Amino acid sequence: MGKLIDGKWLNDDQIIAFEQQQYKESDGRFQRGTAKFRNWITADGRAGVSGEKGFKAEAGRYHLFAAINCPWAHRTMIYRSVKQLENIVSLSLVKPLRTENGWVFEQEKDVESDKDSRFVDSLYGMSSLYEIYVKSVSDYNGRATVPVLWDKQQNKIVSTESSEIIRMFNTAFNEITGDQQDFYPSQLASEIDELNDYIYQNINNGVYQTGFARTQSAYNESVTKVFAALDKIEQRLSDQQFLLGKKVTEVDWRLLPTLVRFDVGYFTAFKCNIRALRDYPNLSAYLKRLVAIPGVAKTVELDVYRRGYNSVSPLRNPHGIVPIGLEPTFAL
Q1: Angle between helical axes of 250-261 and 71-82 (0-180°, round to 10)
Q2: What is the structure's pLDDT at 32?
């Protein structure tokens, strides 16, 4: 998916040697990078818990760059919908499949005149997401990932860390929207943090460690971990509606993007195939409840996931064959 070095884009062929060394050092295990932009939007503009400075919550000031098929970006799109932020924070979607230039946009001149594209950069008309990174930091080094939370007033990136963007969306704009739903209540914060970490390590990122493993031992280790965690969550949901009881919390929204992609993507493309999600009755019922919450279903696009995860990959799917099954157990 390429990478920026000193503000210049290098394609996959140019960085392959670097990544091969990374895999060698980790015995074939996939290592996820960390976000480099960690500033916060707050109600009064004060600095948040990370980053250099604070950004004041204002209607129309911020823009979200996201990808439909990215689970990390999906979190932010869910919050943007359920927290009534669609008219407050504008949105641009990159095209669902990455190219040698990473995440890219369609160009307006290439879009049929009678057809509006969802995948045009509505702010600057740029062709690639990495140009947004360079616009913010001219000599930026690193991946150009989604989501990106952008400040239109200062022309700079606020944050690229999805777990922190959703917490901003949870509270920073409440006085503007009047939406007081709180998915990270203080009395449950420690439980949410603990369960978030478990689910991230074993499920959210666990499916990627499985799909991108380059040795049999690394695959065996990660796939076993994924299903042990799903078994544990299945048991947890045997006597409660949501992961921490009767009300939805942040931990549910962080798990949802992985679950909706499981049977149509991870089961086939990532070889997470000890069981399908449909084989878990409690998890399946739980997923139906989450998707039925107003504003959630429109953020889920199963066919995009199916085609995206099963697209052409020299290592995993050289012919780009898209499997027909499995059909999900929930309705949209």
Answers
A1: 130
A2: 47
Q: Which of 177, 212, 247 is the last residue of a domain?
A: 177
For 27, which DSSP code? T
- What would the pLDDT profile of 172-207 be if each residue is shown by its tens digit? 999 999 999 999 999 999 999 999 999 999 999 999
**Quick one: 93 and 147 in the same domain?**
yes
Active site residues: 70, 208
Cβ(157)–Cβ(37) under 8 Å? Answer: yes
Q: How many other C-beta atoms can be found within 10 angstroms of the C-beta atom of residue 267?
A: 22
Q: Are residues 124 and 271 in the same domain?
A: no
Same domain, 172 and 208: no
| Same-domain check for residues 15 and 73 | yes
Give the Cα separation of 233 and 176 in Å (integer).
36
CATH number of the domain that 103 lies in? Answer: 3.40.30.10
The three-class DSSP label of residue 137 is coil
In a domain, 61, yes or no: yes
pLDDT at 34 over 70: no
What's the domain range around 294?
A: 186-309
Question: Cα–Cα distances in Å, from 49 out to 145, 147, 257, 262, 293?
Answer: 22, 19, 25, 33, 30
Assigned domain for 327 exists: no
> What are the Cα distances from residue 109, in Å, to 156, 278, 290?
26, 43, 39
**What value does the mean pLDDT take over residues 147-159?**
97
Q: For the ranges 44-48, 172-176, 235-239, which has the lowest average pLDDT?
A: 44-48
Integer-rounded Cα Rg, in Å, for the chain is: 20
Residue entry with tokens 């209607």: 59
Asked whether residue 205 is domain-assigned, the answer is yes
What is the spatial distance between Cα 314 and Cα 299, in angstroms, rounded to a whole number?
29
Please check whether residue 316 lies inside any domain of the structure.
Answer: no
Q: Which residues contact 91 (CB under 8 A, 6 or more apart)?
A: 63, 64, 65, 66, 77, 80
Task: Provide the pLDDT confidence category of residue 230 given band limits of 50, 70 and 90.
Answer: very high
Q: How many domains does the chain have?
A: 2
